Amino acid sequence: MENRRTSDLLESFICDCHYRNLSEKAIAEYRWYLLYIKKQCGDLLAVDRQMIKQLVIDRLGAGLSPVTVNHYVKAIKVFYSFLLREEIIADNPMAKLAKVIEPKKVKSVLDVDKVSRLIAIIPSRTFYHARDKAMITLIWDTAIRLKEVLLIHASDLNLQFRTIKIKGKGNKERVVPFGQKAKRELIKYLKFRDSIDSTFIFCARDGLSISPRNFQRTLTKYGNKIGIKVSPHLLRHSSATFLAKSEMPAQHIQILLGHSSLSTTQRYINQIVNQEGLKSAIGGYRLEIGYVSLIYDIPHVTRCKTGGVYLTLYM
């Protein structure tokens, strides 16, 4: 009976996650981690902090990283917050359950020269080369996620105003501007794509969607040609680092990165500042260096000057 009630509550929790419009990936992860906790500790309603701590210690002992084991902690905390919110429990025993301290990891960053070389080695003579070059340029130019790039529809792209409507995490939409270089690469690619019937701007020759894993492999192949390790996330992070170095306002970086809260963006910027040892803006450092082109000329936009750099963003 207890197992059935726990299973029912777990399904109610999953239903609540769907109601709150969480991503399918996040929901699947919550389900997996909670089912693992249930398997190891028994009834989810009967677990206490000590049991979770022991489970975490065991998983660390099995070779899992602090980052990974914190997913177990987060899952049980979110589940119990749901139980409290729904008045199924009167007190939340997991409220004070602390996460495992994660070692500070220095993130690698691609500089402008490396990204310029990466893009330069890709010709635009074929459909696939033109597509890959446009995608890489766009990610570097806008700092948007690979998943967001792959979901761009034809109706989302406005070449005249150089903007893209992006559907981000939680299906939240935002409008992101891009520069002249990205526009040129997009135009070259769209000439090859003209006769292809597909829902998405970036697709395969047969019109089918591209899997993130396939694009990752393609990007790795290009990186190997010039001797660098590169991934879509590293491109995004490197672009964001470049913006932080220019002291672009946090609110503008938030729009580009698609963070749901400004505090998330501020923490992200602080990490970059601490890692890079930045103290002040790079005076007069134009953002249209290399393949970064974030000086825009878009009607109905907000234009500001910061750190000697003029920025125009669609708000």
CATH class of the largest domain reads Mainly Alpha
Number of helices: 12
- Taking all Cα atoms into account, the compactness measure Rg is 23 Å
CATH architecture of the largest domain: Orthogonal Bundle
Unreliable stretches, pLDDT < 50, 5 or more residues? Answer: 278-315
Quaternary organization: single chain
What's the CATH topology label of the largest domain?
A: hpI Integrase, Chain A
What spatial form do the alpha-carbon principal axes imply? Answer: elongated
The CATH superfamily of the largest domain turns out to be Intergrase catalytic core
State mean pLDDT (0 to 100 scale). Answer: 81
Strand ordering within the main sheet: 1-2-3
Structure notes:
This protein has 315 residues and is mainly alpha-helical. It is built from twelve helices and five strands. It folds into two domains: 2-85, Tyrosine recombinase, N-terminal domain (DNA polymerase, domain 1), CATH 1.10.150.130; 117-313, hpI Integrase, Chain A, CATH 1.10.443.10. 52% of the residues lie in helices and 7% in strands. The strands form two sheets. Strands 1-2-3 form a three-stranded antiparallel β-sheet, with no helix packed on it. Strands 4-5 form a two-stranded antiparallel ribbon. A hairpin with a 4-residue loop joins β1 (157-158) and β2. The radius of gyration is 23 Å and the shape is elongated.
